[in-house]
Amino acid sequence: MDILIVKKFRAWTDIRSLDEWEKDVDTIIELFTDAEKPVNFVAWYVAEPDHTLHHNGYYNGEYEKTLSRLDNLFGYFLSRLDDSGFADEINVILTADHGHIQHSIIDLWWSAKQEHLCDVD
């Protein structure tokens, strides 16, 4: 059995727009539907809403805009999957690495600046 491993990646810190994410979706569909060497697994990371929450929190309206863009992106992905004829053949798993909370103890930029909450000798 021949195994084909395709490595296409960019830095996870590469924050992208909806148009760019839709191009990612197109590339993913092309990988699955390649007539000669289709892939059977794709892992795709979208750095939102994490990025927006670290830089804006919940309350200035940016979070809702980002969720709307993500909803549109997922709808686009499902539509492209349907159009490809693979909707019943491919498992889609959505996951996240952590949640968020906004409070006054640690400012929003704490993790983005990689500062320590406290130093322990």
UniProtKB/TrEMBL annotation:
GO terms for molecular function: hydrolase activity. Coiled coil: none annotated. It comes from the Eukaryota. It comes from Strongylus vulgaris. InterPro entries: Alkaline_phosphatase_core_sf (IPR017850), Phosphodiest/P_Trfase (IPR002591). This is Uncharacterized protein.
